[in-house]
Amino acid sequence: MVFSLLLLSMTVQAQTARQFTIDLTEDGKAQMVCFLPEQSSGKAIVGVPGGGYSVLSNTHEGTQASGWLNQQGIAYFVVNYRMPEGDRTKPVGDVEKGIRIVRDSAAVWGINPRDVGIMGFSAGGHLASVISTLSPYEVRPDFTILFYPVISMDEKVSHMWSCRNFLGEDQKNPEMVRKYSTMNAVQRHLTPPAIIIMSSDDNLVPPVTNGVEYYRAMRNAGNECALMLYPSGGHGYGFGPWFSYRDEMLSTLGKWLKARQVPNTNAIRVACIGNSITDGHGIDLAPQRGYPAQLQRMLGKDYWVKNFGVSARTMMNKGDYPYMNETAWKDALAFQPDIVVIKLGTNDSKPYNWKYGDTFKGDLEQMITTLRPDLLKPAKKKGKKSKVAEPAKPRIILCTPIPAFKSTWDISDEVIKNEIIPIQQEVAAKYGLEVIDLHTQFANDGDKMLDDGIHPDEKGVRRIAEIVAGTVKGN
Q1: Which of 126, 384, 418, 474 yields a CA-CA distance of 20 to 30 A from 344?
Q2: With 0-12 CB in 10 A as exposed, 13-18 as middle and 19+ as buried, what is 417?
Q3: pLDDT digits (tens, 9 = 90+) for 160-193
Q4: Cβ-contact 439, 398 below 8 angstroms
Q5: Pairing of strands 268-274, 339-343
Q6: In this predicted model, what pLDDT tens digit does every residue of 252-265 receive, in sequence order?
């Protein structure tokens, strides 16, 4: 036994090139233990131990994972976060700061800042799911690993003490219980891919009302999610060797991690902004099969395409569901895109929206100048160049709506063709933007539409992706 432990220690040391600890708070009450591999794959994982938000189980649910992860070339960072003690912003802030440090130090530590995941256990799984669903884009992980996670904050169907310790007095507030029951916070396209690892005989955190609920929310949103549910193992095994399915679990987890396709570190960022046609209405698993996903495959690893489409949204801020009120809009800006493809206007054509049609031009200009503030500024006089770095100036491609082959939901092709498109063309000319006339190019593609006559089917979204890809590449 002693020899086996010594051999394990030597193996870990051989795979870990450097281990050190960073204080996350000035008083050192929150720390991050860092394990950098000898040969980096560019991938990194921030570990979040469990313990019911009262203690930290940071060995088998923390540092014990370092050897296996470093052996895969994955940098690993265990966050020893502070307990809430009535203030949940403490653990949330500690983990967010850890992720920020990892991304900020990516070049030094051999990490791809676009391949930073989070791995949480039990209550730490809840905390990891909070960061994955509710945190700002800048600190949201690129993928999520959840071991037997607490998901629901309803103590009747979850782990009572995790709920009480995290929410404090807000445990009596139904709105806060719902908000932090993170299956309710999953967002299509915006919540990162996840893998959930549980055992059916877990009698501490019921899997059906917690991990399975998160899986269901992810699958219903069409987001990538895998579920590993073992027949036995109970709760709290983490990376411990006593888990009888440990080898199978590590094999599957390793394959899942290796299969993740990530953009090159210097990839051109492409933000697809739009309504349900961008979102992928009617396309099963649209985040993987919709037009932006197909655009990604067509453009390849030198591009990083993200879908910021939200169904039913309007360009107009007086519309029934304004796009610029959405989290997706904030995320699109935080993404700092190099290219923006805007496809809005279909829902604006509805009579109860188009009665505010006189605001369409101004709201379109607001979106454009928010993306490109330089378009509002007068041209600089020639002279010495400023040493201050100028903000990014993304290339903006404006798409006209595809034809409405039917007037479903009161969408009017006449309004689109005779009123909305001319405004788009006028604004594009004013600001020097590129225009893709999808309305004309799609005119003979009625056979590539769903029965509603508004949304393209899988052949139709591929057609859109081909047209957009051609423009992006300058063809």
Answers
A1: 474
A2: middle
A3: 999 999 999 999 999 999 999 999 999 999 999 9
A4: no
A5: parallel
A6: 999 999 998 888 88
